[in-house]
Amino acid sequence: MTDTSPAFDTELFSQERRKRGLLLGERLTAVARTGSTNDDASKAAELGAEEGSVFVADEQTRGRGRRGHAWVSPPGQNLIFSVLLRPSISVERASALSLVAGLAVRAAAARRVHQSVAIKWPNDVLVGNKKLAGTLVESRMRGADIEAVVIGIGVNVHMVDPPEEIASVATSLALLGDPAPSRETFLAEVLAELESRLKIFGADGLGGLLDELRRHDALLDARVQVGDVHGTAVGIDEQGNLLIRADDGKLHHVSSGTVERL
Ligand code: BTN
C-alpha cells in the first residue's frame, strides 16, 4: 500500500451493498496483501465458506491471469477480487462464467465511461484496444463434480501510471476520463451486474446472454487466428466457444486458446 491509496473500506462496501440489496458479498474478506484472491477463495471453499463470499486484496504477490500470465496491479489502486460460487453445473459449463463475469464488469464500466466497452473472448474487457479488466474462472473439484467455482476479477480503477510491463496494453477507469468511483462503490456495482447475469445464466445458460455478448463482442467480424484455425470471428455459441468461419466456409467452435487479430 502507498500513502495515497487507502485500504479497502469494508464498512463503505457494506453500505453500498445494502443500498443495492445484493446477495453477493454478504461475507467479505479484505486483506492488504495476499498471494492470489483466487487461492484465498479456493481455500475458503475447502473450509466450507458459503456461496457468494467475496475475497478482496489491495495487493497480490502472485496474481495470475490465463495461461500462466501474471496479473500486474499496483498496490491499493485497483479492484482485485474473487467471488465464490457453488453452482450445480459441469466443468465445461463453468468455463462460460468467465464471459458472464466479463459482461458484468463491462456493464458496470459502461456506466462510468463514455467510450464503448467491449468483451474480447474469452476473458478480457477492453476499451479501444486496451485492457480495462480480466477474469479468471477456476473450478474446485470433488471427484467428477464441481465443489466450488471461483470467479477472479481484476479491474483497473485508479491506476494512472501503469507499471512498465503493462503500460502499452492497459487502461483504467481513471485514465478514461471521468473521476473514477471508489473501489468499494465499483465492487458493489460489478456485483450487482454479476448477480443479475448469474440468475439468467442459472435459468437459461449462456443462451440467455448471447444477445448481450453479440452487442459487445470486440472480435465480431474481425480476421483472427487461434492456434491453427484462422478466419473471421462470427460470434460466440451457447457453450461459450468462439465461432470462427474459415475461408473454406467451415465453422469452427473454438473452446480455448489465445486469439490473435490478423
Ligand atoms: C486475465 O486477464 O488473464 C485474467 C486476470 C484475472 C486477474 C484476477 S485479479 C483477482 C484474481 N486473483 C488472481 O490471481 N487472478 C484474478
Structural summary, described in words:
Strand 8 and strand 9 (229-236) form a beta hairpin. It contains 7 helices and 12 strands. The N and C termini lie far apart (40 Å). Helices cover 27% and strands 29% of the residues. The longest helix is centred in the last third of the chain and has 22 residues, at 183-204. A 7-stranded mixed beta sheet has the order 1-2-3-7-6-5-4, sandwiched between helices. With 262 residues, it is an alpha+beta fold. The structure holds biotin. Biotin is lined by residues 36-38, 60, 63-66, 69, 71, 80-82, 123-124, 134-136, 152-154.
What's the helix and strand layout?
Layout: H1 10-19, E1 28-34, H2 37-46, E2 54-60, E3 79-85, H3 91-95, H4 97-110, E4 117-120, E5 124-127, E6 130-142, E7 145-155, H5 164-167, H6 183-204, H7 210-215, E8 223-226, E9 229-236, E10 242-246, E11 251-254, E12 260-261
Parallel strand pairs: 1-2
Antiparallel strand pairs: 2-3, 3-7, 4-5, 5-6, 6-7, 8-9, 8-12, 9-10, 10-11
Helix pairs in contact: 1-6, 4-6
Helix content: 25-40%
Structural class computed from helices and strand pairing: alpha+beta
Mean pLDDT equals 96
| Distinct small-molecule ligands in the complex | biotin
How large is the share of residues in beta strands? 25-35%
Shape: globular
The counted number of beta strands is 12
